[in-house]
Amino acid sequence: MRLQMGKIVSAAAMSAALVWGSATAAQAIPLPDNGPEAGGTTVTVPEPQGPTFATISAGFLQSVAILPDNKAYAWGWNSNGQLGNGTNTDTNVPVLVQTPSGVTFTHVSTEGSHSLAVGSDGNTYAWGHNAYGQLGNGTNTDSNVPILVQAPAGVTFTTVDAGGYYSLAIGSDGNTYAWGHNAYGQLGDGSSTNSNVPVMVLPPAGVTFTDIAAGTIHSLAIGSDGNTYAWGDNVSGQLGDGTNTDSNVPLLVQAPAGVTFTNITAGIYFSLAIGSDGNTYSWGDNLFGNLGDGTNTDSNTPVLVQTPADVTFASISAGGDFSLAIGSDGNTYSWGNNSSGQLGDGTNTNSNLPLLVQTPAGVTFTNITTGGDFALTFGSDGKTYSWGNNLEGQLGDGTNVNRNAPAPVLVLAPVPEVVVTGITFGGLDGTNLADNGDETWSVDTPAHAAGQVDVVVFWTLGGVPQAPITYSSGFTYSPTPVAPTITNPGDQTVANGKTTAFSVEITGTPTATVTWEVSRDSGSTWEAITADQGATPSPDGLTLSIRGSKTNGGFHYRATATNNVGSATSQSARLTVTQQPVVTDPVDGPGTTNPGDNAGSTDKNVDTALEITGSDPDLGFLVTALVTLLLGAGLVTANLAARQRITR
Q1: How confident is the model over 639-643, as a mean pLDDT?
Q2: Per-residue pLDDT band at 409 (split at 50, 70, 90)
Q3: Distances (CA, A) of 12 to 110, 458, 515
């Protein structure tokens, strides 16, 4: 006759780590993140995150968790003392587990109606139901406080996993041990005799187990040879060896050709594993679709879980008769029995294919653990979420109401108060520190030289100083604002078609922007500089290049400097455009031709002249014209002298 389940179902007790008061902030930045160097800016910072559960395990109707300070809490069903708080009273809010004096717990696992923990002293402790010796203390008496497991001499347990009515552990000597109920061979010691002290599991020759998973009445392990082994009850084919025959020693699971399993978890009558090929496999009972292969047919060898297109599962957990997985796309999926809403999809309808869990907006789940028919997860927002059956308060939200979609578990543990004791900016203390009452604190910035500075939040938890939270370059001091000033551009004269420039200089903090304007009526009205197609401002606005033309001669120009404090406008400057001068041949006097050879001239005095056209010739042109005139006169004189010598 099979074991009557009663309140006993499987849980994959998975552990996870969360940041707790980290020295480098991963939360929202201080706001505002900038202000004047004079100080006085009121800045708001998030309150440091208080303790969140670092390790959590879901049993049948109870949950156990460890805070980062290694204090353990439990909530839910407590009829056998499995909460470890010295009572047998159920609770829907976390209560403190009574750890031995001077001992804290580093790892916990709960299943059925008992719990296990590894202590800081290296010993393993157990509490709760003990009818089959599953506490491993040499008795069959229940305990509502943790008691010492009698490990073999010289051996400590490095990994523990609680099963239905039994316990499983890996020892420091490399061996695997089990104790408790053994009617189906789940202890793997070659017998079907219960044991209230640890006995050695008998692995295949030359093989040690590196990972273990305790189901309700069957066990799984990954061997040092890379193979997966199973033993215990096999009524639904959950051992995966191609038979439905129980085994009291480890048997080889028939993995697909070329595939080894890297992650294993055990449910009531089924098993779940991730393969080296990236696929997820399952075998055993499939009454509720818990194998996830699209059927409701049992299988005594591994079958492929039908994951969504382009998704592989990175983390898995087998509950009583449902499964959870975190996908490579960051989503969480579930399948199997949904009578209590344990699939978290907002319905109570079973599914033999993976469904999307309804995660809160903007949140992904980073770790998952399944109980009998409920689930606990850690969210990317640092909160703990739960859904499913809440008959005994195992969701830890202060109610006993089932939920078919995830909701935050306030996890109402009696945690100590978080207090911000100081906030510094570049090493200088802020002032007027205040708790805003909405999980934020505000502070006024001190005066500080301009530039980026670190913002450091100092805080305590229950009066005990914690590692400060640093926001690197979290605040930028801006120089004290100063209204701009601007110099006046000078008047410019340019020849038609040539280019000149107006220039200004500015001061002010922050640096002002410079814009130019043009007036076509001597300053009566002003237009944007684009009205003069011959004007081009420089990128910094300090220079305005002008190409002179018949159009813009006589235009006026001015510049305005503007920043967030004010603006300043220069006086206007005038552009004068001259026409390009033209040089003609010199004009001969009476009886002459030109300042060239003048071969036909007989006059002794020659009047040589240059005609200049154009307006306002510049100095360079006048010099050139004069030189030309003199050269012409010299040539004429030389010519006359030569003729006189010839006639003599």
Answers
A1: 49
A2: low
A3: 9, 38, 70
